[in-house]
Write a structure and sequence with these properties.
The protein has helices at 2-24, 74-82, 323-328, and strands at residues 28-31, 39-44, 48-52, 54-56, 64-70, 94-96, 100-103, 113-117, 129-138, 143-144, 150-157, 159-166, 171-172, 188-196, 207-212, 216-222, 225-234, 236-237, 240-241, 244-249, 255-262, 266-271, 274-280, 297-298, 309-317, 340-344, 354-355, 365-367, 374-380. The protein is mainly beta. Strand 18 and strand 19 (240-241) form a beta hairpin. It is elongated, with a radius of gyration of 27 Å.
Length: 382
């Protein structure tokens, strides 16, 4: 009798576990491609389209109709969740080809809906747009995987501009030396888009990007650092230095966004808006008004050490940017942004080689010599 009861309990337990497992792994619907991330990117420089579809985790037995819709009201909550600054596209610039897709019986992927950007006329430079498309209703009772109910179409408009060539030219910012607000900065971000044609092959193997020698200098290479590694040299705080090198090894012939950030406790390096490496540091102030070896330069440091390549979108902030803030503004930033100290796009100069500081604070970047050689057709994003 006892053995009989044990057999019944085992059978009941197996049945209960099977039911639980069946519930746990029931068939679900989700937007195709959202298994890892809910975002899909559409990078454009003219009207373009992208297809979206819905997938079932198993083949359906009969046709399943699925209603989808654009959901502009979800942009704000998505920004809050991710820290992004996306905007919904302007009226009249987009369309969704259909609001109903169908998974045919015997298959598991629906027909496609085409989302299109039909006009870029009212797009704002530097703004990244987001169109959430969400599953509104399903025929036939299949459940929707909540994490993948909505696909976020991220629209980056390609900015086509030009960049300044460094070597044998470079730029200096003399007004930094007379700006008292830069003498002891509790937080600093230096960021720049940079392209190396070739990395230095002679001692000391340094290609300078921006900053001040022995103080706070962003560069590639050193005698003890690979010539294609990023380095924040100096990191001078209270007479003590806190240098930091990147883990990333860079490739010639490719654009990167690089940044050095001091937040009062650490000095960090970012590559394309992603944290790469850091070192702990003490609190104090970074002095970007130092006149050592001519002060603040772009593309130059001690005895030359020029960058063989191009620069664009160079900025200095009096705050520590986050990686997400950098990713939001890789190609452009509002010149009136809070904390922005200097902003040089390096896409034009006046007859004397002066590159305007777009903040209006007057920190003109001055070319070492004329003419400034421009590289046209530079695209951002990369």
């Amino acid at each position: 009798m006892r053995n009989y009861l044990i057999i019944i309990l085992i059978a009941f337990g197996s049945l209960f576990y099977g039911c639980q497992k069946a519930n746990q792994y029931k068939d679900m619907l989700y937007f195709t491609g959202t298994e890892i991330t809910p975002e899909t990117k559409l990078t454009i420089d003219s009207p373009s389209s992208i297809g979206v579809s819905v997938t079932s985790s198993t083949q359906v037995q009969k046709n399943v109709g699925i209603d989808i819709r654009m959901a502009p009201e979800m942009v704000a909550s998505y920004n809050k969740l991710t820290g992004k600054t996306y905007a919904f596209p302007p009226d009249g610039s987009y369309q969704l080809s259909t609001t109903n897709v169908v998974i045919a019986g015997g298959t598991n992927v629906s027909t496609q809906a085409s989302f299109s950007i039909t006009s870029l006329a009212n797009f704002v430079e530097g703004t990244t747009y987001c169109v959430p498309v969400t599953i509104a209703n399903v025929d036939g009772g299949l459940s929707v995987l909540d994490a993948s109910r909505t696909i976020y179409i991220i629209i980056n408009r390609t900015i086509i501009t030009q960049a300044a060539t460094i070597a044998p030219n470079y730029f200096t910012v003399p007004s930094f030396q007379t700006d008292a607000t830069l003498k002891s900065m509790a937080a600093v971000t230096m960021e720049c888009r940079v392209y190396c044609s070739a990395f230095q092959t002679k001692n000391p193997y340094i290609s300078s990007i921006m900053g001040i020698e022995e103080n706070f200098l962003l560069r590639f290479g050193d005698v003890s650092v690979p010539n294609n590694a990023l380095e924040l040299a100096g990191g001078l705080i209270n007479t003590k230095k806190y240098p930091v090198n990147s883990n990333t090894l860079f490739s010639a012939g490719k654009w990167y966004h690089v940044a050095a950030v001091y937040d009062g406790t650490t000095i960090s390096l970012f590559v394309n808006g992603v944290l790469d490496s850091y070192t702990t540091a003490e609190s104090g102030g970074i002095n970007l008004s130092d006149n050592y070896l001519g002060g603040f330069h772009v593309g130059y440091s001690s005895d030359g050490r020029l960058l063989s390549g191009y620069v664009s979108e160079a900025r200095v902030w009096n705050k520590a940017l986050t990686g997400i803030e950098m990713q939001n503004n890789l190609c452009y930033v509002d010149p009136t942004s809070k904390g922005l100290v200097a902003y040089w796009r390096f896409n034009s100069a006046d007859a004397n080689g002066n590159v305007t500081d777009l903040t209006g604070l007057g920190h003109t970047a001055v070319a070492y010599k004329l003419p400034v050689v421009w590289v046209p057709g530079v695209r951002c994003p990369y």
